Amino acid sequence: MSDYYQEFIEASEKKAFDKNHRKTVNFNISKYDAVVPKGKMQYCNLSLAKERAAHIKHKTINDLGKYLVDFEANFVSRGGKIIWALDQVEAVKEILNILKKYDSRYVVKSKSMITEEIDINAHLKDKKIESLETDLGEYIVQLAGEKPYHIITPAMHKSKEDIAELFYNKFGFHKDATPEEITAFVRRLLRDKFITADVGITGANFIISDIGGIALTENEGNALMTVSFPKIHIVIAGIERIIPSMKDLDLFWPLLSTHGTGQNITVYNTILTGPRQEDEKDGPDEMYVILLDNGRTEVLDHEEQRRALSCIKCGACLNGCPVYKNIGGHAYGTTYSGPIGSVITPYMRGMQEFKHLSFASSLCGKCTDVCPVKINLHKLLLFNRRDSVKMGYTTRMEKITMYVWKNAMKRRWFLEKATPKMKNFMLNKFFSKAWGPRREIPTVHSKTFNRLWKEQRNFGK
């Protein structure tokens, strides 16, 4: 087993038995559970909207190269610069080259999971370049020295009391500060930072092929200021974020906001098509878009799993997942947690190291049910499990256990002839460790179901 597996098991057990942690997480998710159904009421036919979105994304992913090349041509025509990055190392190198070119020592960032994926803050710190998160949730976890806990809500694992204590320790703020007071304090703090920043870094919710544009959606306005004040704007986007046309935004933006936060539409929605033009009064002097692969083409190579690249990162599958609700986001040890992270991470970071995530699921199907682009997440987890076995990433004991179980279940005579004592011995011998010390091994009935059925139906008489 990999080190990641051991860390996952230890972190999962710790969090699952932390009642305060579970209470905070479930309380925060319950807020979304209360408003998301109301947001969905804006649709007269939600199923059709999801079907359309799924079709568009599936079509785009299957012809990814064409749409990306079209985007590049349209974006470059307006003065933008495109950089293709194969992996994290290339992406970080290119960002550092840009910062060096402009002698930048101070960066502001808007909320972006892909910058967490490449761990850009740590790399900038190594080069003594200050990087400040401007999203409130991201700023909180940055202050705490942590990673985001959730795709949409980075500080979901913290209560308002936890945050007040954090600000007391960092700034001497009073311990009983309200969320409104903390928000106002951070707003004043960040305003000065925006004005003095050399470079702004954002992600991209969508890459729009036909106009060469980047679509950003947010609730706080920090992304707009990250773009507006600094002279240099760097966008980091996964290649799967592409959509064919600007017309598609009227479908994807409401689906994203409704399934993510229950809103009809997010507060601020922005489309950027390059640096400031001659007839424009604001915007950056230079705009770079780094298109990142980092394992995405590995997912694309697998016919079933490529559907996961349709994900629009709404976070709905995390909110619905009973495993996520119990162990939380940090236990996964990856940038993308929950069901979607469990599907894509084994291919993006290595099946041998992360195959265990595909088994961290109840297969209840809730993730599939809530997905706005109809990704069959629970089925993809099963495909991952199948592939991990085909690749040979199973232990010798697992192979023996499954061999014995398969052959026993294929032979009715064996199930009838074997005594309950023998069956219970086999269950305890082969499954007690696999099922874990906190599961009670079931006791086999003295008669098989087949025998009980015949007796109750008076068969054979």
CATH topology of the domain at 42-294: Rossmann fold
Proportion in β-strands:
5-15%
Q: CATH-wise, what's the superfamily of the domain at 42-294?
A: NagB/RpiA/CoA transferase-like
Top-tier CATH class of the domain at 42-294: Alpha Beta
Please mark out the parts with pLDDT under 50 across 5 or more consecutive residues, or reply none: none
Average pLDDT score: 93
Distance between the termini: 53 Å
Give the CATH architecture of the domain at 42-294. 3-Layer(aba) Sandwich
| Residue share in helix | 40-55%
The major pleated sheet works out as:
6 strands, parallel
Strand adjacency order, main sheet: 1-10-7-4-2-3
Total number of β-strand segments?
10
Question: Which structural class fits the helix and strand makeup?
Answer: alpha/beta
Total count of helical runs of at least 4 residues = 24
Structural shape: globular
Rg to the nearest angstrom? 25 Å
Keywords:
alpha/beta; 10% strand; 6-stranded parallel beta sheet; 54% helix; Rossmann fold; 10 strands; 461 residues
What does this structure look like?
It contains 24 helices and ten strands. The protein is of the alpha/beta class and 461 residues long. Among the domains are: 253 residues, 3-Layer(aba) Sandwich (Rossmann fold); 54 residues, no CATH class. The strands form two sheets. The protein has a six-stranded parallel sheet, sandwiched between helices. The relative contact order is 0.12. The mean pLDDT is 93.
Blueprint of the fold:
Layout lengths: L2 H14 L2 H22 L5 H17 L1 H13 L4 E5 L2 H14 L4 E4 L3 H5 L2 H7 L3 E4 L2 H8 L16 H12 L7 H18 L2 E4 L3 E3 L4 E6 L3 H7 L3 E7 L3 E2 L5 H13 L6 E5 L13 E7 L3 H5 L15 H5 L1 H6 L10 H12 L1 H4 L1 H4 L6 H5 L6 H14 L5 H14 L2 H6 L2 H16 L13 H8 L5
Parallel strand pairs: 1-10, 2-3, 2-4, 4-7, 5-8, 7-10
Antiparallel strand pairs: 5-6, 6-9
